[in-house]
Amino acid sequence: MDVRYINSFVGATCNVFETMVGMPVAVDKPTVKSEATPSADVSGVIGFSGDATGSVVLAFSFDTAAKIASAFAGAQITPQHPDFADAIGELANMVAGGAKSKFDGFNINISLPNVIVGRDHNVCPSRSAPRIVIPCRTEAGFFYVEVGMVVEKKVQRAAAVAAGVTP
Amino acid sequence: MKIMLVDDSRTIRNIQKNVLKQLNHTDVVEAADGVEALARFQEQVPDLMFVDWNMPNMDGLTLVRKIREVNRTVPIIMCTTEAEKSRVLEAIKAGVNNYIVKPFTVDSLGEKIQQTMAKVNAAAGAAAH
Fold it and tell me: How many domains does chain A have?
């Protein structure tokens, strides 16, 4: 996956968390997802379709997710709270929307959020694009942004031509 | 001023309500999608609407188009994660008065309300003369 695409997700994550959660995010070096990637308790998932297909997942432990959801909503939100999944889903939605806005000239649609809640799970998308894991640190704890995305070849070529690069 | 918040995320509607409260706007009605918003709109026309784009049942763009078929004047601000220029143009073409991209701050939301109402009031004043 093109590193510029990953930078879009890093930028969007930092912007969303700083603006809406009030928590600066420190980002560690992205890695390719492997068996060593920690499992999650809470995952906010947004799918992409159109000129790029794939998904972005925001993956948290229960404790970190509850702290972040509470800071975002401005009220105490536990994993049992009816708005817990809604808050995590909306964070994923804003990260996905912010990232896709950086894909100039691409027509990409994002899905409505899905949120998976369950101890030690792993999100396994059906398509086999390599998935990049972006480790994020906040005062509420660690979380991961996991991105798997395939840009349609004809769109890649058109973007390269527009940028003056021989495809 | 009655403000209608249309967003499928209750968390976002609560955040918007808190921001509006800080700006001294407390008369708020809520809808979780375009279908609910249209029903509420038919009961009472608000003075201002905030409309999300991506929602189940009826998306925000369809809602704006349907409202503009029957009401050309109610001020509508699209409040969405859709930030591309093409999307903004599509929304303006559908009839929104202003556009704010999530994530937003108290200041940016307040500024958009002020901008929108100033333009709407100026247009209404010009039409009256």
Answer: 1
